[in-house]
Design brief:
- The protein is mainly alpha-helical.
- It has twelve helices and seven strands.
- It has helices spanning about 10-25, 25-40, 45-55, 60-90, 95-125, 130-135, 145-150, 155-185, 205-230, 230-250, 265-275, 285-290; strands spanning about 150, 260-265, 300-305, 305-315, 320-330, 335-340, 345.
- The strands form three sheets. A three-stranded antiparallel β-sheet has the order 3-4-5, with helices on one face. Strands 1-7 form a two-stranded parallel ribbon.
- A hairpin with a 2-residue loop joins strand 3 (about 300-305) and strand 4.
- Helix 2 (about 25-40) packs parallel to helix 10.
- The relative contact order is 0.15.
Length: about 375
């Protein structure tokens, strides 16, 4: 049969459509990711957490969404397409036993590499930087419950989303394999298969050449799949699993927001004047009294329309930690200073270290 002519414009249009959808969803996915973090880390109720995220600066939300979608898009496309190509290689009847063994080894390696890379990505994301300390983790000098809450642990925080991502990659590759097989069966186009065994070296010394041929034919495999449309369903499934894994990772990652410090000299003086006139002790708002002793207790959300929006940590009547959403007018504060979070991103040491997180002492009751 005559091979279908590849249209460069059609490939560009298909890839543009595939990328345009995530771009349109950057803000919604970033919003959901922050909502999950606020719900778990700040113990906020559903509607309170939703309102808090709506106050966050739009560019921060979009940055969070872009971080999720870029990894899910690039990783799922590359890995699932490679898995589909390896499955087709293994299914090719013209490949000898060593070629099938090499395909099985490649499939295992791709799965393990995807798992390890996603774990490393999750730890780097939680630490906020690329460094050896972000990968190896560090022991924290605090009680066990606080350490488990403030840091990203290998299990289950990193391994579960990584496993979801790998399952999506394998499922997407399997769908790509099935769609390609159906395409060739309907069109009787065996020429679209790209066997790696014809005229190739056999034995152990032929393995590097086989791997290079696999990489080269994978490019052709992608081009053909995009042009003929049979690769898109598998990539879509892998992409959905990648997003699910990233949202799970967002749920397990602590919500480290910048701190904001305020000065309340004018507000406190007004409260004292009113209290003296009414012959009562000046109480003042709780957010005006606590920052002198807790200058880093306020998590910055945004500043818009003359208001400072932030999350304040206080105590409820039972003496436990409680977070509240507060908005202050510009005239209520004498100064405002946004600084880096005093609590940096944390990554737990690996379980096989000498002093893992489980060795820490329990937290005191009602400690906040």
């Amino acid at each position: 049969m005559t091979r279908v002519r590849t249209s460069f414009l059609e490939i560009v249009q298909t890839l543009a459509a595939y990328v345009a959808v995530p771009v349109a969803l950057v803000y919604p996915f970033g919003f959901v990711a922050l909502f999950l973090q606020f719900t778990r880390y700040f113990y906020l109720e559903f509607y309170t957490a939703w309102y808090a995220v709506s106050l966050v600066d739009r560019m921060v939300v979009m940055g969070q969404g872009a971080t999720i979608l870029i990894v899910a898009l690039v990783g799922s496309v590359l890995c699932s397409g490679l898995v589909g190509r390896i499955l087709l290689l293994y299914d090719d009847t013209r490949v000898d036993w060593f070629g099938r063994l090499a395909a099985s080894v490649c499939l295992t390696l791709v799965s393990l590499i995807a798992l390890v890379l996603y774990v490393l990505y999750s730890r780097t994301l939680a630490a906020g930087k690329i460094s050896w300390l972000a990968i190896a983790g560090s022991q924290l000098h605090e009680c066990r419950d606080n350490a488990m809450r403030h840091q990203l642990n290998l299990w289950p925080d990193s391994l579960i989303p990584a496993a979801i991502f790998v399952v999506g990659v394998l499922l997407g590759g399997l769908l790509i394999y099935g769609a390609h097989f159906e395409f060739t069966r309907r069109s009787y186009a065996e020429a679209w298969r790209h066997p790696l065994a014809e005229g190739r070296p056999r034995g152990v010394f032929g393995l590097p050449h086989r791997l290079w041929s696999l990489a080269r034919s994978t490019v052709t495999f992608f081009v053909s799949g995009v042009t003929q449309r049979w690769i898109l369903p598998g990539l879509t499934v892998a992409y959905i699993f990648g997003i699910a894994a990233s949202l799970w990772l967002a749920w397990d990652t602590p919500a480290f927001m910048p701190y904001v410090n305020f000065g309340f000299a004018d507000a406190i003086s007004d409260v004292k004047q009113v209290s003296e006139e009414s012959s009562k002790e000046p109480e003042g708002p709780f957010y005006a009294k606590e920052p002198p002793t807790q200058p880093t207790s306020d998590r910055y959300l945004s500043h818009a329309d003359g208001y400072w929006h932030f999350v304040h940590r206080g105590k409820n009547p039972a003496g436990k930690r409680e977070y509240r959403i507060i908005s202050l007018r510009d005239e209520e504060v004498s100064y405002a200073r946004v600084v880096d979070a005093g609590v940096k991103g944390r990554v737990a040491p690996f379980p096989w270290e000498d002093h893992p997180t489980g060795d820490l002492k329990p937290c005191a009751r009602f400690r906040w």
